[in-house]
Amino acid sequence: MIVNLLRFRFREGTTPDQEAEVLAAMRRTASLDSAAFGVVGHDIGDPAEGFTHTYLVGIPDLDALERYMHDPVHIAGDEVILPHLARLAAVRMSDDDPDVAAKVAELHLAKVAKYPEWGRAVDELMAAR
Prior knowledge:
Layout: E1 2-10, H1 16-30, E2 37-42, E3 53-59, H2 62-70, H3 72-81, E4 85-94, H4 100-114, H5 116-127
Antiparallel strand pairs: 1-3, 1-4, 2-3
């Protein structure tokens, strides 16, 4: 199992309707057949860390992760989601292969190569403070 937890906050000026649209897109992505489970909601961690919401998804294995990453619902969802986020932090874990981190990184780099604008947008959000 590969688990991806994203903590994020919305950009200043994002309307409640836009927030609802982003969260709906995240819920669609988290409910893909390639995902074992998913949760989208409010971050209940330390507010001083600057996050307001979380996205968590469990993916059974690397094959499912690759399908998940390239699913048209996920691709379309990111087009709705990413422009409205101000900051993003990821925590990833696995109960499986100790070399899974390198394999996940390889899948991520393959997606960045296919969708370079997506890769730049994600990198910018991960660097934001």
